[in-house]
Structures are given as C-alpha cells and as structure tokens.
C-alpha cells in the first residue's frame, strides 16, 4: 500500500509539472495532479524570482524585470499567456455563448487578445521594475494562481459539452458526497502556503498582494462562468495571469515598497 501511495504522489507531481510547465513529458493529467498545483506554482515562482534577483546584480532594474518576465514565459511554455489571449477574445466581445467557445478554440489571435496580453505583460514588467527583487513574493503569487486553477477545475462546471483536456482533472464519479472536500483542501493548503510566503517577504504588503490577486482571479472565473457557463483550460491560464499581475501591481504600491 505504501509503494502505491508513493507512486500516485509521484504521478500526480509529474502530471502537474507536465500540465503547468514544459517539463514532465507527455502525461495525461488526472485528479491527483491538482494537489501538486500550488507546489509547482511556488517552484516556478522561485525560478522566475531567482532570475529576477540574479539579473538585478548585473543589469538595471528594467532589464532585470524584462528577463524575469521572459523567464516566466519560458518556464510556463507560453501556456498561460496563450490562455489569456484566447479568453480575452472569447469573453470581451459581445456574442452568443456558442460563438464565444468557437472563437476561443481558433488558433489565431484577435484584437482583444493581443491588446490584453500586451497590457498584462507591460504591467508585469513595470511592476517588477518598480520593486526590489523578491523571489518570495513571486513564489507566493504563482503558488496562489495555481491554487485558483486547481480549485476551479473541481468546483466550477466545465463549459464545453464535448469536454477537453482540463476535464481529466475532475474526479469520477461526480456524486454529491465529498464534492467540496477536494477543492476545500487544496484551497486551504494552497492559500496558507501562498500567504506564508508573502508574509515572509513583507507582512502587510505581501498579504494585500495575495488578497488582491485572489479577487482578480475570482473576477475572471466569475465572468467566464457567466458568459460561458463554466471554465475551460484557457480560462484557468487567464485567471492565473490576471491574478498574478494584479498582485504584483498591488505589491509595488508606494506603501508596499
């Protein structure tokens, strides 16, 4: 029984890494991966923060910030920024629900998606440039963003009737018993870890950054639920990127420096 449990844990970690980063190989995701989302997010955040910190030792803060933004795109394989682009194209323009899902599935990028991605990357760069390198802050926000993704994948309906890759995370069968146990456990553990990392950076500014980021991510998920009837994989990426960005902007407010 012990070896089976260890194998499942390793499998879940690999599934989470494969879904959230270019690492882990071609592995089909499963429900066990969700428990590892916050940890993988924290590791990615530490990687981005480490690049930011090291670059600041050599280059001016604008260059270091740009390298940190680039490191995030590399470590996530552009997965989340692609989701942000598709989600913006599907949610912002006025259209019917079915058409929104069709637009989000198209391989090209529309004006809404390009504009939102450009503004988001600009805000991330400016916010990082305004702060002193803080790997713990980035780890906190990145852990929180993956926590929201994991909770959403279980607690919110999937929008596409035909299903998709993200539906593999949902435990089966979906009966009423213990429906909320998984998202509650992941949410509490992930939030506690994110807040701990943020407070270790700066107690007040870090906590406010995580709260602001969480509110922004919930806003994206709520909008998708209203206009699409639930979430998609793209929505998960969009919620994460918007939340992280709002958290960084909140952290670089004058009182937070």
Describe it for me?
Residues 1-8 have low confidence and may be disordered. The chain has helices at residues 2-20, 37-56, 61-75, 79-91, 97-105, 111-130, 135-155, 181-201, 203-228, 233-251. The protein has ten helices and no strands. The protein has one domain (2-16, 29-168, 179-256). The chain has 257 residues and is mostly helical. The longest helix has 26 residues, at 203-228.
Short structural description:
The chain contains 10 helices and no strands.
Structural class: mainly alpha
Overall shape: it is: globular
Overall mean confidence score, pLDDT: 87
Specify Rg, calculated over alpha carbons.
18 Å
The DSSP helix count reads: 10
Strand content: under 5%
Helix share, percent: over 70%
Q: Ranges with pLDDT <50 over ≥5 residues? A: 1-8
Q: Give the count of structural domains.
A: 1
Order of secondary-structure elements = HHHHHHHHHH
N- to C-terminal distance: 50 Å
Q: What is the β-strand count?
A: 0
The biggest sheet amounts to: none
């Amino acid at each position: 029984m012990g070896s089976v449990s260890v194998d499942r844990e390793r499998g879940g970690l690999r599934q989470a890494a494969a879904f959230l980063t270019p690492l882990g190989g071609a592995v089909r995701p499963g429900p066990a991966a969700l428990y590892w989302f916050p940890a993988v997010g924290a590791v990615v955040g530490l990687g981005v923060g480490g690049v930011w910190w090291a670059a600041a030792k050599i280059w001016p803060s604008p260059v270091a910030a740009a390298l940190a933004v680039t490191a995030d795109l590399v470590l996530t394989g552009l997965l989340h920024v692609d989701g942000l682009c598709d989600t913006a194209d599907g949610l912002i323009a006025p259209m019917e629900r079915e058409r929104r899902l069709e637009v989000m599935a198209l391989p090209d990028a529309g004006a809404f998606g390009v504009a939102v991605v450009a503004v988001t990357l600009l805000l991330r760069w400016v916010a990082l440039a305004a702060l002193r390198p803080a790997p713990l802050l980035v780890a906190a926000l990145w852990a929180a963003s993956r926590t929201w993704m994991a909770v959403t994948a279980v607690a919110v309906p999937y929008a596409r009737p035909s299903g998709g890759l993200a539906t593999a995370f949902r435990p089966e069968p979906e009966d009423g018993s213990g429906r909320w146990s998984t998202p509650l456990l992941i949410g509490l553990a992930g939030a506690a870890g994110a807040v701990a990392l943020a407070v270790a950076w700066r107690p007040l500014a870090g906590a406010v950054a995580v709260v602001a980021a969480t509110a922004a991510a919930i806003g994206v998920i709520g909008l998708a639920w209203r206009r699409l009837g639930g979430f998609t994989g793209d929505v998960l990426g969009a919620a994460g990127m918007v939340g992280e960005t709002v958290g960084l902007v909140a952290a670089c407010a004058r009182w937070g420096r």
